[in-house]
Known about the structure:
Elements: H1 2-12, H2 18-58
Amino acid sequence: MLQFIRAWFATHIPRSERGQDLAEYGMLIGLVALVVVGAVIILGTNLTTVFTAIAGQVGPWAP
């Protein structure tokens, strides 16, 4: 898989822009990670409450 990714980058990204694009992808991945962490922190307790309520209602039917 790693060889496929390297081959794809080698054929689709010109040499002069290769480092710049990789840095941009890295920044984008970092931004997405921050958004996910922020959403989990903000919604964490609410999600726990929702899943606990669902588990409480499904519990009697579970084997």
